[in-house]
Amino acid sequence: MNIADGVLREIEGLSKKGGMAEMATRLPQKGMAPGATRGKPVTLEQVLDLLERLKGKKFGLREFQRLIESFDVLALIGSGELTRETLRLILTPNEGWAAGELQRMLSSYFPFWNEEIESSQGYPDGYRFKSAAGKLLALQSLHLLGTDDYGSHVKELATHYARNMPKGAEELLVCPKPSRAKEWGLTYSYNLPLSSALIILDRAIKPRFQNWWKDEQLGDTEMLRLTDKTAAALDKLEAETPGDYLVIPVQMGMRHRGRSARRAVACFAENEFGLGPLEVAYYLASCPERFVMWYDLGIICAGAECKDSPKGEFDGCPAFNEHQDRINLRYRRADEYSDLYGVATGFLS
């Protein structure tokens, strides 16, 4: 079956299920592609007719094949974002469209579109999501922070999310509020509570934890910082959540597996934000069974930006993975993609 046959079948299936409209609603609004003009949106019938005429033809550009195979393109067609003129330019690359121009056009619709690979990796065999109450108990068993808060609000929030889990979330993450640092007489920043979170993680999985960062790097805001979107989301959750613990709807990598950190960020839903290393460290402390074998999906913390050296740029993210029976925390470039990693994210209601 050639490309056109495969896409024709998928479009027909989406049309019958009403899936075109559903997919269109989750896409952010994009600007027009270079060289494109506004005109009448391409209709589903026109796309079907177009693909019928494309059957049997071969395309010399691999980028064009990826474009046709992308479900995001189908959603753009369904939402009217992809116009007749734009589609004509895509389908006539030999009429003055060099590969570089086509790549710029793809990037205008799909930022970092080529930093993604198919992945079949996932969570450990038999892995089951632990309840919020179970995660809280696991953290409290580590004598976490010596808190007197027994987390009664965690159960209440878990009951709420059982009926109102945001789309895309798989489970709930429980972690102490980063602002608890104020009560210890410390100047509040994300970096100081992060160091405490890593101590807790080491305590939970000792001797499996391997931190490839130096303490002074993690504590230095010139080496590691939250992204603006994640910082705003955590501030909002802190303000709205009673008690000492945050309860965050999350997914731990499957939704964005195979994508680079910056490609995943470009694909985030409006209410979605990247998790930082603090949140993921507490998750792993409460769910150490998340990593068993080297091929278990690694976790990229796209909610934070970091450098690999003091003189470097903020061009990376912290990431956790399993290697040689150790859970490692390491630096990973934001443009690096692999089928062995996925970006973990949280969701606002």
Automatic annotation (TrEMBL):
Q: What is this protein called?
A: Uncharacterized protein
Q: Which organism is it from?
A: Candidatus Woykebacteria bacterium RBG_13_40_15
